[in-house]
Write a structure and sequence with these properties.
Beta-Lactamase; Rossmann fold; 7-stranded mixed sheet
Length: 358
Amino acid sequence: MAAIDQLLRLMLEKGGSDLHLTVGLPPKARISGALAPIGDTAVDARTMEAMLREICPEKRWADFLDRKDLDLAYEVPGLARFRGNYLYNHWGQAAVFRQIPAKILSFDDLKLPEALKKFCHLDQGLVVVTGPTGSGKSTTLAAMIDYINTNLSRHIITIEDPIEFVHPVKRSVIVHREVGEHTESFGAALKGAMRHDPDILLLGEMREMETIKLALGCASMGMLVFGTLHTNNAAKTVDRIINTFPADEQNQVRVMLAGCLAGVVAQLLCKRIPKGRCAVHEILLSHEALPNTIRSGQIANIKSIIESGGADGMITMDNSLMNRVKDGTIEPKEAYMKAAMKATFAPLLKPGDLDGGH
C-alpha cells in the first residue's frame, strides 16, 4: 500500500471530497465545503516528496520537476479514483487530490434539468459546460456522456488531463486519451481526432487559444464537441472564447462561433438544506437570434435570449437560484451570495444574514 493511500482513505471516511497536502501543515480535507485537518502531524519536505514520488511514473515525475506542475489520475483499488495535482509553492512541493466518484451518476441521480438531454441528441456543434473549479462540471459532463452511451450508438473520443471518469462499454464506442500519457497535448490530440471518425469529442478543458480554435474547427466540420471553461454564465463564456484571440482574429472567431455554438451550461454548487450540496444551472440553447447576436458582438443580449426561452428549457442563473430558494433546497443567504442581481434576493434575507463582512 502506498503511504498516501491511508490519508485518502481517512479523507473519504470523514466525508471529504479533496485532500490538501502542504509542507509544514497537517493533511487537510474539504468536508462539506470547508477545510479541516485530518491529522495532527505536519508533513515535512522529505515525507512529501516520498509520498508524491511513490505513486508517480518516473517520466511524469521528471516532467513535474521540470514544469513545477503536474496533473495525474491515481486509483486505490477497491476504494476510489482520484484526480491529483502536484505543484510547488512557497514551502516546497504540495498536492491536492480530488475524489472521482466510482459510479458515474445519471441524469436522475444528479437531478439535472431535462433540457440538457437536448445537447446529447445533437449531431454537431459546440456545447460548453462552465463554472468555477469544484462546481461539478466533470460530473455533469460524465452524466451526459453516460446518457449518450446508454441510448445512442456513437463514436466518442475523450481528451483529458488526466482521465477522470472511465465509461463502461454500452451502446457507444468510447476512447479515452490522457494528455501526457497517450498524446503530447490537447492540440495534438484534437488534430489526430479529426482523422479518427468521431461523432463526439469531449475536452477536459479548453485551456489555450489553439485548443479553442481546434474545438471550433471540429464543431464546424460536423462533430459534436463538449468542452469546459471557468466562467460563470453564458454571456461571459462567449466573451471569454472570443477574447482569447488577438483583436485581428476576433471577427473571424465570432463568425465561427456564431455558426457552431449549440449551447452553454453554467453550473454552481450551493449548500443544500440541511446538509450536502446541490447544483444550479444557467442554460442557453440554440436559438434563431443567437448567431446574429454573436456575430454583431451584442453579447449582453444573450441574457434576453435566455429569459425569452423559458418554454424551451432555458433559464438564467438567478432564476435557477430563486427556484431553489422557493422549493426550500437552499437558504436565501446562499442564493444572495451567488446571484448576479443581488437586489432581487435582498428582501428574502433574514436579519443578521449578512453580518460578518459579506
